[in-house]
Specification:
By secondary structure, the protein is an alpha+beta fold. It is built from 4 helices and 4 strands. It is globular and about 45 Å long.
Length: 116
């Protein structure tokens, strides 16, 4: 089992930088290409718990799916937002790095140092 998991998008410079920090630190890493991997609702909830964040805290507000679904409105429950993340994983901010029961959002990428 890998000591670190990273929810990674190789097209994202912040995600590549966070991955590089882990690699430079010789960490055992499982790379999860979350845009290509089927996520499930329970996994998203688990990641949010490890981040100690609410779903709205990790929404990518610049994504077209965010705008198309009017997610700016406050009348969405946490479960509603998680369902949208499940259906549209691009909505999930990246990178997210997990180690054990803790996780950090790699924005800025140096945040991953908290887990090393």
């Amino acid at each position: 089992m890998s000591a670190f998991k990273i929810f990674h998008n190789s097209r994202c410079s912040k995600s590549r930088q966070a991955l590089q920090i882990l690699q430079d630190s010789n960490c055992d890493i499982e790379i999860i290409n979350y845009l290509e991997t089927d996520l499930d609702v329970s996994l998203i909830k688990d990641v949010l718990k490890k981040l100690s964040l609410k779903p709205r805290d990790i929404l990518r507000t610049s994504e077209q799916d965010y705008k198309d679904n009017n997610l700016k409105e406050d009348d969405f429950s946490d479960d509603d937002l998680i369902d949208y993340m499940f259906k549209h994983p691009k909505l999930i901010e990246r990178p997210i790095v997990i180690k054990g029961h803790r996780a950090v959002l790699g924005r800025p990428p140096e945040n991953v140092l908290e887990l090393i």
